[in-house]
UniProtKB/TrEMBL annotation:
This is Ribonuclease. Residues 141-354 form the RNase H type-2 domain. Belongs to the RNase HII family. RnhC subfamily. Its EC number is 3.1.26.4. It comes from Methanoplanus endosymbiosus. Endonuclease that specifically degrades the RNA of RNA-DNA hybrids. GO terms for molecular function: metal ion binding; RNA binding; RNA-DNA hybrid ribonuclease activity. NCBIfam families: rnhC (TIGR00716). Its cofactor is Mn(2+); Mg(2+). The keyword Nuclease applies. A divalent metal cation binds at residues 147-148, 255. It is found in: Cytoplasm.
Length: 354
């Protein structure tokens, strides 16, 4: 397990233990050779730093804690936050027996140095920890996640987003409450999308295809005997390419909609090489979940702009309310303008104009 991954696992466990003791943890950020985060202890904000060097040695820096009376409690919580396979910190007697048990398993060697720091070498435990905690949706880090919004909505744009996530930003996103956008309401999506942009600044991309342009592109693809999946592949490839223009990443996870080859062909045509993995319900991965929120946020904003521009509340989805709104639109603006607000190749168009 890489050094950053060790810190990510450790920080995750620290947060769990802090929560058990009614201590809020936030403001996680990178620092040289480690991480810094803030603890809110009885209303007092206290900073904590954890460092890890390339040899796997982890050090806890308590010097930023202003209220020294909190030190014993913080030390106890943090130094109990040791995960099998990534044990760190000063080991107390009641933890030592667990350490011995795990250190003897697999191809690991371990020792506590004169400063009380624990060092683990070898890959046996780390590999098992990695495998036991990861399902098919966990590709490791860094990884780009992409998702789209508006594909099944008659009105509004088609929006595709991509987010590059590493170990630290994954934890930040998790504690922001990032999850599949379909499990969130629009107001929460708007709020969290702004925070995602802050956490992943310079490592995300969004493409918005408004209805008029969408209909034009769809017609072009159909003329080449291509379909909606090819159009979607171009959108996913575009956001991946945008992210790769300023970042290095070798893996991308996409919510499955077509054969991997479709997206790869679009990227290779632009000289981009990356492993594409497509899975159903890929939003279970934090990078795809973040992308789904960004995409949905921009889609909702696009729907609001169109509704305001034409003074008609355009519903999401493809329901009887959508048909009623479409008939109202056609009555006011005519059939020819329907392409400006809707994806006219949907069967819904026939129900509206009949």
């Amino acid at each position: 397990m890489a050094a950053k991954d060790d810190l990510a696992v450790l920080f995750d466990e620290i947060c769990r233990n802090m929560k058990k003791n009614s201590i809020a943890v936030d403001s996680l950020k990178r620092i040289s050779y480690g991480i810094q985060f803030k603890m809110n202890i009885n209303g007092s904000p206290e900073n904590m730093r954890i460092y890890q060097n390339g040899k796997g040695i982890i050090k806890y820096d308590y010097s930023q804690i202003k209220r020294k009376e909190y030190l014993p409690m913080v030390r106890e919580i943090i130094e109990e936050s040791n995960e099998p396979g990534s044990f760190t910190g000063k080991m107390r007697g009641n933890i030592q027996s667990n350490f011995d048990k795990f250190a003897d398993a697999g191809n690991n060697s371990a020792h506590i140095n004169s400063s009380g720091e624990l060092r683990i070498a070898g890959s046996g435990l780390n590999q098992r920890e990695r495998n036991s905690g990861r399902g098919e949706y966990d590709l490791g880090y860094p990884v780009i996640g992409t998702d789209e919004s508006g594909k099944g909505d008659y009105f509004g744009p088609l929006v595709t987003a991509g987010v590059l996530v590493d170990e630290i930003s994954a934890l930040q996103l998790k504690f922001l409450g990032v999850k599949d956008s379909k499990e969130m309401n629009d107001s929460d999506i708007k709020l969290i999308s702004g925070k995602i942009r802050e956490v992943c600044k310079g490592r995300y991309a969004v493409t918005e295809v408004m209805p008029e342009k969408y209909n034009e592109l769809y017609s072009r693809f159909r003329a080449k005997n291509e379909n909606l999946n090819d159009l979607l592949a171009c959108c996913h490839a575009e956001v991946i390419e945008d992210i790769l223009s300023g970042n290095i990443c070798r893996k991308a996870l996409v919510d499955k909609f077509a054969d991997d080859r479709v997206i790869l062909d679009k990227l290779r045509g632009k000289g981009k090489e990356i492993e594409i993995v497509q899975l159903n319900r890929a939003e279970q991965n934090i990078a795809v979940a973040a992308a789904s929120i960004l995409a949905r946020s921009v889609f909702v904003e696009g729907m609001e702009r169109l509704s305001e521009e034409y003074s008609i509340m355009l519903p999401k989805g493809a329901s009887p309310a959508v048909i009623a709104a479409g008939k109202k639109f056609v009555f006011r603006y005519g059939k020819s303008d329907l392409k400006k607000v809707a994806k006219v190749h949907f069967k819904t168009t026939g129900q509206i104009v009949s």
